[in-house]
């Protein structure tokens, strides 16, 4: 077999288009109102119905959603935000944008997510928010400490960039009562091209979020075009979701059921194939309740060499993510995080996107088995 039979596995992740996105973008371009518009507002209503929440505020990215959420929660200079180091750097940059400081904590070795005990141990008088990252799409359950967090006025702001469509118990992520932030960037399970959304906790937060995302202007777009002036009530940012991006998101949302099924089935196919390899373990994502965002394995020894061999053979492997507490920009807040540091040396993300078939999965795992042999000849797989 030639490698061209397995073209899609050369990409670690990739947006999936259902088809009608092309016509929807053409129509949005034709309408000629490309900024925040009725398409954005329709997308918000449809997202709220899907998630089972009263309201959703669409924004230009998850990074913007995280920033706005921190401002809504009153987080600013002098405050600390408890956050895992095991995340995309956007999570940490959003904290710095608010003026607060990250307080890095370690993760659970099985889930790669933070847990209640680690959060409780990190609370200081300056803690104003905790920002769990729903790594791989897995929901983070903080019920055990929710009362304690409420009593101390500590907000839960979820980085749910990976977790659109996932559930915690009977409800979708977003409907759990946390300030939840989603990404609709190019490789996320639902994409707008670029985009994001924030789930406010009440009507007051929704109103404030809408002003913060549109330069502090308080009137809705429809009201603004009928008057000779507008009111700027607060500082604000250029964080709105354009109608062109919303048009893509609306098509993606209408077809999301198919994506949930494909992602779950691909992840289960990987689980079956990887069960034969001893030097590689699969990071569990709780596939019954989650819509998997990626497929992450631990390569227990020699990860870098295995990564290189796979890359040379056209397999699009990745590492999500290099730890933030070891990045130069965040060195001031570095501390020892043994689980995160070991994890960083072992994890590798296998190609994972809806264009792939189970045949592709079997191919990736067979090349992985070859790479393990080649990287350490004589050792069992
Ligand atoms: C993609 C991602 C973000 C940032 O999302 P944008 O929409 O690109 O701003 C934040 N956190 C995590 C974990 C992500 O994967």
Present the secondary structure layout.
Layout lengths: L20 H11 L6 H14 L5 E3 L2 H11 L7 E5 L4 H10 L2 E5 L10 H7 L4 E4 L12 H9 L3 E5 L7 E2 L2 E2 L6 E5 L12 E4 L3 H11 L7 H4 L18 H12 L1 H19 L5 E3 L12 E5 L3 H10 L25 H9 E4 L7 H18 L6
Parallel strand pairs: 2-3, 2-4, 4-5, 5-8
Antiparallel strand pairs: 1-9, 6-7, 8-9, 10-11, 11-12
Helix pairs in contact: 1-9, 2-9, 3-4, 3-7, 10-13, 11-13
The chain binds pyridoxal-5'-phosphate (PLP).
Pyridoxal-5'-phosphate binds next to helix 3 and helix 4.
How would you describe the overall organization of this protein?
It is built from 13 helices and twelve strands. By secondary structure, it is an alpha/beta fold. A seven-stranded mixed beta sheet has the order 1-9-8-5-4-2-3, with helices on both faces. A three-stranded antiparallel beta sheet has the order 10-11-12. A two-stranded antiparallel ribbon has the order 6-7. The protein is globular and about 75 Å long. Bound molecules: pyridoxal-5'-phosphate (PLP). Pyridoxal-5'-phosphate (PLP) binds next to helix 3 and helix 4. Pyridoxal-5'-phosphate binds next to helix 3 and helix 4.
Key descriptive features of the protein:
single chain, 381 residues, alpha/beta, seven-stranded mixed sheet, three-stranded antiparallel sheet, 12 strands, globular, binds pyridoxal-5'-phosphate
Summarize the structure.
By secondary structure, the chain is an alpha/beta fold. The chain has helices at 21-31, 38-51, 62-72, 89-98, 116-122, 143-151, 203-213, 221-224, 243-254, 256-274, 303-312, 338-346, 358-375; strands spanning 57-59, 80-84, 101-105, 127-130, 155-159, 167-168, 171-172, 179-183, 196-199, 280-282, 295-299, 347-350. The longest helix is centred in the last third of the chain and has 19 residues, at 256-274.
């Amino acid at each position: 077999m030639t490698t061209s039979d397995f073209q899609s596995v050369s990409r670690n992740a990739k947006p999936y288009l259902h088809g009608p996105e092309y016509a929807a973008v053409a129509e949005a371009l034709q309408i000629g109102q490309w900024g925040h518009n009725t398409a954005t507002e329709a997308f918000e209503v449809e997202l709220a119905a899907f998630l089972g929440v009263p309201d959703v505020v669409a924004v230009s990215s998850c990074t913007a959603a995280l920033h706005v959420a921190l401002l809504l929660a009153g987080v600013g200079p002098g405050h600390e935000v408890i956050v895992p180091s095991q995340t995309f750097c956007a999570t940490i940059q959003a904290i710095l944008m608010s003026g607060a400081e990250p307080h890095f904590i370690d993760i659970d070795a099985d889930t790669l997510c933070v847990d209640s005990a680690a959060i409780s141990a990190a609370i200081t008088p300056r803690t104003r928010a905790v920002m769990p990252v729903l790594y791989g799409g897995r929901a983070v359950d903080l019920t055990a400490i929710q009362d304690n967090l409420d009593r101390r006025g500590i907000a839960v702001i979820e980085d749910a960039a990976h977790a659109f469509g996932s559930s915690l118990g009977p409800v979708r992520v977003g409907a759990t009562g946390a300030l939840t932030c989603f990404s609709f960037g190019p490789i996320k399970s639902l994409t707008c091209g670029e985009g994001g959304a924030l789930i406010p906790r009440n009507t007051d937060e929704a109103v404030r979020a809408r002003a913060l995302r549109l330069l502090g202007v308080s009137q809705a777009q429809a009201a603004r075009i009928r008057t000779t002036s507008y009111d700027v009530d607060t500082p604000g940012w250029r964080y709105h979701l354009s109608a062109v991006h919303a048009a893509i998101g609306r098509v993606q949302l209408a077809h999301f059921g198919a994506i949930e099924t494909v992602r779950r089935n691909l992840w289960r196919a990987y689980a079956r194939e990887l069960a034969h390899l001893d030097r590689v373990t699969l990071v569990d994502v709780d596939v019954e309740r989650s819509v998997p965002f990626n497929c992450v394995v631990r390569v227990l020894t020699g990860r870098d060499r295995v990564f290189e061999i796979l890359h040379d053979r056209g397999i699009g492997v990745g590492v999500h993510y290099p730890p933030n507490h070891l990045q130069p920009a965040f060195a001031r807040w570095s501390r020892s995080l043994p689980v995160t540091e070991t994890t960083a040396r072992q994890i590798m993300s296998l190609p994972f996107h809806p264009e792939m078939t189970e045949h592709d999965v079997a191919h990736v795992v067979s090349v992985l088995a070859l790479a393990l042999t080649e990287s350490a000849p004589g050792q069992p797989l």
